[in-house]
Amino acid sequence: MDKENFRQFGYKFVDWAADYLTDVAEFPVKSQLKPGEIRSQLPANPPQQGESMERIFEDFKEIILPGMTHWQHPSWFAYFPANNSPPSVLAELLTASLGAQCMIWQTSPAAAELEEVVLEWLRKMLGLPEGMAGVIQDTASTATLCALLTAREKTTSFESNRKGLKEPLIVYASDEAHSSVEKGVKIAGFGKENLRYIPVDEAFALIPSKLEEAVIEDKERGLQPCCVIATLGTTSSTAIDPIESIGRICSEHGLWFHVDAAFSGTAAILPEKKSMLAGAEHIDSFVFNPHKWMFTNFDCSAYFVKDPGTLIRTFEIHPEYLKTGLDAQVKNFRDWGIQLGRRFRALKLWFVIRFYGVEGLQKMVREHIRLAQMIKKWVEEQENFELMAPVSASLVCFRLNDGRSEEDLNELNRRLLESLNQTGKVFFTHTTLRGKYVLRMVVAQRTTEESQVRAAWELIVSKAKELLKSS
Ligand SMILES: Cc1ncc(COP(=O)(O)O)c(C=O)c1O
Questions:
Q1: Does 46 have pLDDT greater than 90?
Q2: SS3 (DSSP) at 230
Q3: What is the rounded average pLDDT for all residues in the chain?
Q4: Distance 359 CA to ligand 1 centre (A)
Q5: From the CA of 325, how far away is ligand 1's center (Å)?
Q6: Burial label, 162 (beta-carbon count in 10 A; 0-12, 13-18, 19+)
């Protein structure tokens, strides 16, 4: 592809992207296709000769696009947000054009130093303790795995890196912790049986006294407690674990304290939400995802540690071919995590923070929280609806409840979810809370406004009425 050709299609694609980002509401939110429908339209073998960009782009629009679920849709209320924004998308274009491999300082000094600066901005925006140092990981799952590995090494004085794990180490997290905790525990060699799930209270937050009991019990059994993982904004209901009390227990018992704030962490940029970080001085490692609720397209996970030395000692490698004369003076982020090769992800974060400014970001996040509170009120006021969890940020958990048996209610709400998603106008997902089937309404998409939220609620109420009439 020559320069003029590139320019021609570049303009075309940017035109397409500009239209997509503003008109995405015209698509059904959730792809309506059946399994195999896309695959059946694609050739089994790669083309022997190159094809024209016109043809490839046409196929993108005709074959690929109908098979997409549109996460940027303003009526996206499912799972969690994975929002992007125009400045972030444009920065990605620059990142891809630069095509830099940012594994060490020398392979792109700007990438390493920008990452350092932007993560320090983020630390200040959230109000994490001074001195915590940040690095971008691909996902929160990876960050949590890094925390577990670092905790393992610290507890064993770096012996497990040398000799392998010799005795069981115990990890603690609440019943509501994300599945990445279990995955990390398995990958890091702790063993699933050494993960203790601690019960939660009526707000689905970890009960500190139960944590302490479990730690003491393990110590009495001669086991070695190692790491506690608390969640700020659990996946099912965005419950907030009490950082201060959990942190005190960790400090007292010498345990690594990791906080997973993947989704809700962004809320801490608001002065009125800073209280969720009370006790942050106890935190050893902390992750939140700008790729969820901070308008920075996937992937971009911000990981902060109190003691970078322990992190680096866990991961560092010194093959001859990566040594430079500058290693003592600079940050080589290859030693701050699992992967060697690193994308230039700080660029899009820098664009987003500069373009919106802290106040602009706060305004968007605050609006989502306002909308969630509005839905909460509607749920509480609507006959036959029940709020199923406190609304800590931008997620509302609710169900239809006309007093039938729990088993029948689960089925009723399953049908409600299905009927809503079949419309293609909205996309909701579910969870279970204490065995009860619950609909989740996440309001955190950059493009979501009050009008879409009102329309979605009207749809919920009308589908619920139809269901109740017919069953
Ligand atoms: C609390 C929490 N932790 C971790 C994750 C996993 O995030 P990632 O996809 O960045 O690994 C999620 C995703 O929903 C989450 O809600």
A1: yes
A2: strand
A3: 96
A4: 26
A5: 38
A6: exposed
What does the pLDDT look like over 287-334, one tens digit per residue?
999 999 999 999 999 999 999 999 999 999 888 877 787 777 888 999
- Helices of type H across 127-207: 140-155, 159-163, 179-187
Count of domains in the chain?
3
Neighbouring residues of 324: CB distance < 8 A, sequence distance ≥ 6: 104, 105, 106
- In degrees and rounded to multiples of 5, residue 386 shows phi and psi of -135, 130
Mean per-residue pLDDT, 237-253: 98
Write the CATH number for 56: 1.20.1340.10
Strand partners, 385: 400
- Ligand 1 neighbours by CB, cut-off 6 Å: 80, 139-141, 178, 180, 231, 233-235, 260, 262-263, 289, 301
pLDDT tens across 155-203, in order?
Answer: 999 999 999 999 999 999 999 999 999 999 999 999 999 999 999 999 9
Q: What global pTM score does this model have? A: 0.95
Tell me the CATH number at 267. Answer: 3.40.640.10
My answer on whether 389 and 439 are in the same domain is yes
